[in-house]
Amino acid sequence: MPKNQTDTAMFSYQPYGRALDIEIFRVSELRQRTSASEIRTPHRYDFHMLVCVTHGEVTQWVDFLPVPCAPGSLLVLRPGQVHRLGDSQEWEGWMVLFRSEFLPSDAQTIADLLPVLGLDQLPEHMVLAPVDSDATQEAIVRMRQDATRTALPKDTHALLRYQLCALLLRLCILQDQKTVTQTAGSQGLQRFVRFRRLVEQNYAGWHKVATYADALGCTEKSLTRSAQKASGHNAKSVIAARITLEAKRLLAHTDRPIYLIAEALGFVEATNFAKFFKRETGVTPAGFREGYKA
């Protein structure tokens, strides 16, 4: 973990201690090497993080929303997300940090031994059954032990890379099983899953429901119906929520001028962005930024 933190900068990966491309430690160890105020501060990461709660309860915050966590909770945080560990000191867990480059790319996979891992299919908050939580903790503990072995760095990195892939593959399988159960016989839910994936990839350029409907080969009405049934929100609201989330991230954790944020999110005029943001949040972009800093 980095020692110096600011509210306006991305939180870069800087391993504490041994220079590896992955770092595994307990939350209690983090408390010993940094201040309580730094732990309570929200940060935006440029790396991946897993947070596995093993004891106690805590409300963490992900992208400005509270996430109640208890034993069995696993947070899967991605680069660009905003996260706060919460105020409670009465909980324990494991944290695993790694950069995107540590995972294998399409060109680096070796048959079925090192699969391409679709981390985008994992939700931000997984609630694991006791047997799956135990297996996850055992895998993390083994990685922690192997990270401290006296071995050549290249050998240690190779071992930890395979172990991380195995852990993530286990989580992907668990999520696939859940998704198959939920989407079995539901064409609308499958369409919504594809829609959400497209929104994540194109929210900065595609603002209209019609664009997504064309890409999915369906009508706007059927897409809106699928979104409403699956999430309780219509398709237009799903798109607007993703744009708003990214706007909040950029306003809270960068010093970028508002007109540049508007441009990055696909708005031709900053005034249109300001009207959109106020309609969605009730405050202006400048007001949100000032309130967050305060």
How do the helices and strands line up, and which of them pair or pack?
Layout: E1 10-11, E2 22-26, H1 27-33, H2 36-40, E3 43-45, E4 48-56, E5 58-62, E6 65-69, E7 73-77, E8 82-84, E9 91-98, E10 125-127, H3 130-147, H4 153-183, H5 187-202, H6 209-216, H7 220-231, H8 235-253, H9 258-264, H10 270-281, H11 285-293
Parallel strand pairs: 1-3
Antiparallel strand pairs: 2-9, 3-8, 4-7, 4-9, 5-6, 5-8, 7-10
Brief summary:
This protein is an alpha+beta fold and 294 residues long. Helices cover 49% and strands 16% of the residues. Strands 1-3-8-5-6 form a 5-stranded mixed beta sheet, with no helix packed on it.
How would you describe what is shown here?
- The protein has 294 residues and is α+β, with helices and mostly antiparallel strands.
- It has two domains: 10-183, Jelly Rolls, CATH 2.60.120; 187-293, Orthogonal Bundle (Arc Repressor Mutant, subunit A).
- It is 49% helix and 16% strand.
- The chain has eleven helices and ten strands.
- It has helices at residues 27-33, 36-40, 130-147, 153-183, 187-202, 209-216, 220-231, 235-253, 258-264, 270-281, 285-293; strands at residues 10-11, 22-26, 43-45, 48-56, 58-62, 65-69, 73-77, 82-84, 91-98, 125-127.
- Strands 1-3-8-5-6 form a five-stranded mixed sheet, with no helix packed on it. The chain has a five-stranded antiparallel sheet with strand order 2-9-4-7-10.
- Strand 5 (58-62) and strand 6 form a beta hairpin.
- Helix 8 packs across helix 11.
- It is globular, with a radius of gyration of 20 Å.
- 24% of the residues are buried.
